[in-house]
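Record 1 of the preview.
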Amino acid sequence: MNEATSAESPGGEAGRSVQARKAFRRHVALYAGGAVALNAMNYFVGSGWWAFWPLAAWSMLLLIHYLRYKAASVDEEWVEERTAELRLKSYDRDHIENIAAHGPGAAAGKSEAERK
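->
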């Protein structure tokens, strides 16, 4: 099966990415609703700040879910786009372009004759 077919199929890479995004968004919505509910209960019960600990634990779980979602969504296209973006934003762009053109160890702005 080629990459175009697997990306277009519901069980392919794109399908998993969409499902992962939906699952993470559901988790965020559930977290927001749960945080509001826990804080409301904490306000009305009024016995200290007990809602902090369940929210802290849930926040850690949400962070782990986010990191797994982001790690799974990295693909070659994203890597290429990010690399190009970083190269454009580089403060020493000429030096990076020189290395890309001439290889590592090439002196910036010097010709082959000057380096020898």
